[in-house]
Write a structure and sequence with these properties.
68% helix, mainly alpha
Length: 230
């Protein structure tokens, strides 16, 4: 099969995989309403936790993460053999294919064709993608996400901070610690693009945080701080 055709198949399957609207399916099948019409209107785990409870929230979170994992770790190896890019090693080639698959899975989650292109913010699917591409940097970003939530109770703030930490971790490890990161020249710009996308997706949350009107999860705020409005 032609390499371009293989790449198109990977991108298409990744998009369709990302388009599976987990929270919407659960809300419609088990609760009889469209989750986009309640709460924050977001088709993601945070809104599911708030509206449907922690058990369903965890299910949504796991499935949405798996969408990114499968797109990155399964589809490129099923259809990616023979796809090459100029002046790259095989490892960098497969890394680029993984990034393309991951991006299309995230786009599918944000703009799912199955429910009229009104999806979620892509955090969990992005997390799944990063587990497959950069597990160390994902773990570092996850650590800061947990810290932010523990101190603030804001899931959105944790997501924003972890999105910023992601490329920062990569740059620090490569340039300061001199870690060997295959395909760094490509991955770092890819991570920066992901950060910009996720911050853009949270632009309304940022405004609400600054105004002090963002929804907080008090039970997750294990350490109270005296920061104004946070």
């Amino acid at each position: 099969m032609d390499p371009l055709a293989k790449l198109i198949i990977i991108a298409l399957l990744s998009y369709l995989l990302g388009s599976i609207p987990t929270a919407w399916i659960i809300s419609k099948k088990f609760f009889g309403f469209d989750i986009r019409e309640r709460g924050s209107g977001n088709v993601g785990s945070t809104n599911t936790f708030r509206l449907l409870g922690w058990k369903w929230g965890i299910i949504v979170q796991i499935v949405d993460i798996l969408k990114g994992v499968v797109a990155v770790l399964v589809l490129p190896y099923l259809f990616g053999s023979g796809i090459t890019f100029p002046s790259n090693t095989w490892f960098q080639d497969i890394t680029i294919v993984k990034m393309i698959a991951g991006v299309f899975a995230v786009i599918g989650h944000i703009f799912p064709v199955s429910i009229g292109f009104r999806g979620g913010k892509g955090i969990n699917t992005t997390a799944g993608m990063l587990i497959g591409i950069a597990p160390i940097d994902f773990a570092i970003a996850l650590f800061f996400f947990i810290l932010a939530v523990i101190f603030s109770g804001y899931i959105s703030l944790g997501s924003i901070i972890s999105a910023i930490i992601l490329p920062s971790s990569l740059v620090f490890r490569y340039n300061i610690l001199h870690a060997h990161i295959p395909g760094y020249d490509y991955v770092v710009y890819f991570f920066i693009g992901i950060t910009v996308l996720l911050i853009f997706q949270h632009r309304k949350n940022i405004i609400r945080i600054l105004k002090g009107t963002e929804n907080r999860f008090p039970k997750l705020q294990l350490i109270k701080c005296n920061c104004r409005k946070i």
